[in-house]
Structures are given as C-alpha cells and as structure tokens.
Amino acid sequence: MATVTAATREPGPYRLTEEHEMLRDAVRVLADERVAPRAAEIDRTAEFPQDLRKLLADHDILALPFPTEHGGLGGELLPVALAIEQLSRACATTGLILAVQELGSLPILLAGSSEQQKRWFPSLASGERLIAFALTEAEAGSDVAAARTTANADGDDYVIHGSKRFISHGSIADLITVFAVTDPDAPRHRRLSAFVVEVPTAGFAVTRLEHKMGIRGSPTAELAFDGVRVPQANRLGAEGDGFEIAMRTLDRSRPGIAAQAVGIAQGALEVATAYARERRQFGQRIGELQMVGAMLADMDAATEGARQLLYKACVEIDAGSPEANRWSAMCKLVAGDAAMRVTTDAVQVLGGYGYIDEFPVERMMRDAKITQLYEGTQQIQRLVIARSLLGKDG
Amino acid sequence: MRIVVLTKPVPDPASGAERLGPDGRLDRAASPAVVNGNDEYVLEKALKLVAEAGEGEVILLSMAPASAPETMRKALAMGATRGILVTDPALEGSCTVATTRVLAAALKTLEFDLAFAGVDTSDGVAGVVPAGVAALAGLPYLSYAATIDPDMAARTVRVNRITATGFDVLQAPMPALISGTQALGEPRYPSLKGIMAARSKEISTIKMADLGIDPASVGTAGATTRVVDSHKPPPRAATRVIREPADEAARQVVAFLAERRLI
After folding, report:
1. Residue in B89, B189, B196 closest to A6 by CB
2. Range of the domain at A24
3. What's the number of domains chain B is made of?
4. Per-residue confidence at B30, pLDDT binned at 50, 70, 90?
5. pTM score of the predicted model
6. Which ipTM did the prediction report?
C-alpha cells in the first residue's frame, strides 16, 4: 500500500530542468518514430526530405530559435541544442534542417531591426519559409574577410555581384543572408555588410549542387548573384558591420553543430553497443572482450564529455558570458572530434558489417566528418581558443 | 465544459527503480516522478472533449508532496488549463482512506461537469480512490470507461463500461465521476509549444487546514493500514538455456521432457 513520502528532486545547476527533459523526450520520440526510418533512404537518394521539414514545422521544432513575440519558442540555445542532438541521433541531415534555420536567422536576430524581425521571423518560425547563410566563397573559406562578392549602393537599393560556395540549403531557401563587400577600401574587418535576399529574384541562380561524403540529403549549393537588387531596408545593421555580425552569429550557432556532432556520436554508440551485446565470437558476446569493451567505454566517455561541454556552453553563451567565443569554439571542437572518433570506432566494433550499408554506422561516419569542417574548421576553433587564452595582442 | 482530472505523481515504472524504503513506505526519491499512466489516458480524453466542445477547462487535482508541481507541468504541457495541488507535510504517510477523504473534500470546493480518474495508480495499485471519492463527494460513479460521451444540453453522460464479457452502457446525470482505462486512447505527446506554455500555467495549492480535515485522521499517525513486512519473491530456480543448433536442441528438449515423464 503506497503512502506519501516527502521527497524532493532538486535540479541543481548541472541537471536539465523538467522542461528541458520534456522537450528533449518529445523530440526523441519524433526522431525515433518518424525520422529514423527515413534516414538510410535520405542518404541513398541524396534528396532533401521535405516531408521531415514539414514534420519539424508541424511540431514547432523550427520555432525553437525564434523570439516568442514572432511566433517562436524563445531562442534559448539549450533547447535548440537538445532538439538538434535528438534529431541528429537518427539522421544528421534532419538535425541540420533546424541548425541551418537557426544559423541563417541569427544575423537578423543579432543585428536586424524590430521591423525586419517582424517582417521575416513569423514565416521562418512556422517553417513556412527556409533561410540560408551565405558567407563562404570559393576563395574565402576560413579567411572570411577575403570575400569578394560586392554590394554597390544604387539609389534606394544595393546591387550584388559575385558568388557563394558550399551554402547549406542554398537551393531550397526562400531567404538568404548574404555577406558582401560594401567598402573595399575600408580596414579588413569593416569591408563587409550583411543583407537578406528574398529569392527567387532577378540575377540570382543556383549554379551547382555538391555531391558530398555525408549529410547527403542536405543540399549544398553554389549561388550566383549577377546584379541582384536588394532594397536598403534589407540591409542588417550598418554598412561595415558584416564581419562582426558573421562572427557573433558563429558564436551562437557553433553549439548547434556541436549538438549535431553529439547526436551523431550517440546514434553510433547505440548501434555499436547493441551489436556488441548480440554478436558472439569465441563463445561470448564481443562486448565482453576487453578490447571491444574498452572501445565502447571510450566512445561513451567521449560522447558524454562532448555533451556536457555543449550544454554548459549553451548556458554560458545565453547568460552573456564575455567568453562566448571560447565556449562556442570549444564545444564545437570537442564534439566534432568526438563524433569522428566515435563513429570510426563504431564501424570498427561492427567489423565487416560496419563497412556495409546494412548497418547505419558507415553513414554516420561519413556524416560525422562535416562537423570538423563547417561553421569553422577545427583549426579555426583552435585559433579562437588560443587567442582567448593568450588575450588580444593590440 | 469543465472537467477535473484527478492525477498522481508516481515513480517512473519504466525506470525499474521502484522500491520500498526501510520503513516499508515507497521510496519516492529512488526514481524520478511521472504522471501516473492511467491518468494520462483520462487526461487525453478530457482534452479531446473540451476541444470538441470548442470551449472549457481541464483542471488537474492532485494530493502530493510539495515537489509535485514538476510532474504536474507534464500534464499541463499536454494541454490542461491549470492545476490544483493539495499539499501539506501533515499528509505525509497517508493511507488510501485518508487520501480519498482529502481528495473528496478538495473536489467539493470546485464546480465542474465531470471528474475523471485513472482506475488505479502504478505505485499502490489499490484502485479504490476514485470510487471512494465519488461516494464521499456524493457523485454518480462510472468505472472502467472505454468511451465517454457527455451531453451538455441534457446534462448527462454515457459511458461504455468494460466488463469480463464485453461492455455495459451506463448513463448518469452531471456532475459525475468516471474512472477510465487505456481503452480511451493513446495520450498525445506534449507539443513543444505546450511544453513551453506549461511554465506559465497556474498551479494553486490548498493546505489541509483549508479543507477542514482533522490532522489526526491523516498522515502516518492516522493511517488505517501499515506495511509490516515486504520481501522480493524468491528467485526462480536456475534455468537451463539451450543454444545448440536445431537438431541437437530438439534432442535435448525431448530428453528433458521425457526425464520428467511429460512425454
């Protein structure tokens, strides 16, 4: 006969709140039931899953990065990270849908006027429209400030000439946040400005779609701007603010990629663990063989370490930490490397079976690699952290 | 339309960590609390009925420890309007009879058309509180509902009550108390908007003194039952697992059965 006993379970600073757990579990159920069954097919056909984009929109998941006054769910980093992590566990391409929606919108959140936010956020929060982030160029990857796309003032408009490369969702987005040179003679970090281009529009074209190692369902495009007109009202912040807007955006968006990486790692760990429980060789479950058990243990520790750093980074960045760039770079550095290591080891645990597409780990390994490359390579993350440690030199 | 849903936070059955403390009482700290499984089914039905009616409220009513708001938030996230928590340190250790008395007293302070409850809870599995509350509150009691059909104009409600051989059709005037089962339908998973909205929904608390309950009749001191002993069932005898290939396995199974003169 049950009786009432007084007991409390205090969340404390290092536990997720009830609300975070509910949110995470809600997305996890969706990921397991609706996303996971589609993952292999998405990778095989390399088709963007519009059905899953709609699913995310219908379940308010795409509303997570946006302020509540514009139909969003608040924009806190930790809920966004939790959702990306759970989705990526099942399918990295699907997790990326949310991550890119956040990435493309952050410049508007950080530098857009309230009129601009009111104009664009509601349809982005509802998932009716998608947005992409166009910073990278063929000759300006890690060296962002070397961008050559120009935006020349002409009456009430700017006219954009140039091209962007490796733009996630570039071919399916309705809005594109574009960084272009407005003053070539300004100091290096004041040459760029940020604009929101609404597409389709005259002069805009998708000139290439990449065939990639991983995240194959996510369209990665080369975009051409051949005299694209954009009204002044679509410029974000002041002329010359572009570089800083981009950097501040990445400080907030990198945890999203870290979350994708943690999710991929977790998915791979689960497949490897399940396999090690079932597969018998030499008269026992292979998980009980010490070399395999040690690998699994290291995989678990690496994933958990990356996860805890990610959650902490989200909380610190949202709290306005003056070291946001250090937290952001660190969580992405650690998570990306963890994902690559864990997925590679997952293939190893499965042996020959890990190499064929009967099991998902080979796809997860291919998916993991990008987390060491985009939104700043691991080398760039190290630069950021080292600078933060040493302090600026003049 | 106003529906009160009686709900209880229970240790998560999925965690496998339910256990009794040394004093024979449920150790609620051993695992996180969740909304009792059967409560979710009746809550889902209540939400559907209010949505179909186009207006109304679903109010959660619970007698639970002070930490219960965390669990009540889950039910609010599903879409309930607000929650009422009867909580008081003096209630700690209450038996089923005392719980029934307190909930009935709390229910009597509310205006409602229908009150729902799960047929039992996964921790105590007594299954008597809904009937007891109906009796003490003077409400018609319809149990084991597989369907619930209210008629607001006629102020009656009709229920298909599951029996061993099929179902009975019962009808009662409102207000009435109905206990329900999983036959009512799968509970919705809280939407993200629902989860975020839950944080600002109202949970009001009622102290025992507000209900005019005599403290001596509740809590450990007033408990009508006491756990004197509990133990795990004895472990099963060692099992033998046959893993050999089919032919050899069949031979071993036949030998096993023959030894025991079963074949």
Report:
1. B89
2. 18-125
3. 1
4. low
5. 0.80
6. 0.72
